[in-house]
Amino acid sequence: MITGIGHIGLYTADFDGMTAFYCDVLGLENAFDYDEPDGKKWMRFLRIAKNNYIELIWREVEALSGHYAHLCLAVDDIQAAVARVKEKNVPLFREPACGATGNWTFWVRDPDGNKVELMQVMPGTLQAQLEAQREQ
User: Fold this and answer.
1) d(CA 6, CA 133)
2) What are phi and psi of 23, to 5 degrees?
3) What is the per-residue pLDDT across 29-58, written as a single tens digit (0 to 9) for each?
4) Sequence-ordered strand ranges (E) for 26-67
5) How many domains does the chain have?
6) Predicted structure pTM score
7) Following CA atoms 15, 16, 18, 20 in sequence, which dihedral angle do they give, to the nearest 10 degrees?
């Protein structure tokens, strides 16, 4: 069911500084930005390895910088993952839905209350396109 870590979400008020640190210092790839429909900054994806990313989430409030947002686990079958979680009597924090990036997700909380997103990367999404290009 779980195929790997899809991404770790980090809040930041400094896309450029965070991008420089993770890409220039640590060698990750600045993969793509995903902005809000009105053009405002929203998310930047930094590629670690195949299907593994750091998701920077823009927040203008400096107090949120550096805070963990969530862990995303990649799954191969979103419906099977939902069924398994429900079978284990774990309540869903967010119901299954096609997210803004076109991937199917749902959310739970771990016993400490941390947000955990489970995501199936769908064909045609920016993540899928980038990985397909890399395999060519």
Assistant:
1) 18
2) -90, -55
3) 999 999 989 998 899 999 988 889 989 888
4) 29-34, 43-49, 52-58
5) 1
6) 0.70
7) 150
pLDDT at site 103:
95
Give Cα 23 distance to the centre of its chain.
Answer: 17
What DSSP state is assigned to residue 63?
G
3-state helix/strand/coil string of 69-111: EEEEEEECCHHHHHHHHHHCCCCCCEEEEECCCCCEEEEEECC
With 80 as the cut, is the pLDDT of residue 62 above it?
no
78-131 pLDDT tens trace: 999 999 889 888 899 999 999 888 999 999 988 667 788 989 999 999 889 988
Instruction: State the Cα–Cα distance between residues 7 and 119, nearest whole angstrom.
Output: 10
| Domain coverage including residue 45 | 2-135
Could you give the CA distance from residue 121 to residue 45 in angstroms, rounded to a whole number?
Answer: 14
What DSSP designation does 112 have? T
* CA 97 to centroid of chain Cα atoms: 14
Residue 112 token pair: 């400490």
